[in-house]
Amino acid sequence: MTRNELHSILLSAFALAASLSAPSPAPAQEAKQQYAAMAPLEQYLMDRDAEIALARSVAPDSISRDAKVLVLGGHGFETAVKGKNGFVCIVERSWTSAPDPDFWNPKVRTPICYNAPAAHSILLRNIKRTGLILAGRTKAQTDEAIVADVDKKELPPMEPGAMCYMMSKQGYGGDSVKHWPSHLMFYYSQTDPATWGADLPGSPIFAMNDPRST
User: Which end of the chain is more exposed for a tag (fewer CB within 10 A), N or C?
Assistant: First the structure.
């Protein structure tokens, strides 16, 4: 599998255009300068109960109450609540969920709830990414390691039907994109977003290629 083949399409089921307008150059530059390196680990950690509550806020209670919940610890994400419906809720940090200017932003808290196919593929990449980051790898080194692990089949391929809920009114996406409206994401490999009418004027569908979430 080549690097280009690892690109995935994220399809939002809700209108995102209003919140996805590009930030002004000054804030982006300030964020890039402010978050030039990883902050002390303690700044990325949360109170355990607060993190569980934030993770569960991202999907309807009928889904999140029986979902597995992960929280961030000193060596990576760990299970805080055992689930029974196949969903996994988690509060991701900047290195898996924020724009590049906010890659090291310790304020980022992005609650996401993955369904089983996404938990078996997308989430495993983000857990691996977190472990590498906490071990001291740079962004570039981490990206290369994830691609290599997919090439070597040490990380599984994208599973059909992978999706996640991002419906929380809480959380913080970063100084570049502070708050996303409630939405769902669907993950596809090697799909032309033009077939959905994505990114056209007035279209409620936003699509992007993200090699980090292959």
Answer: N
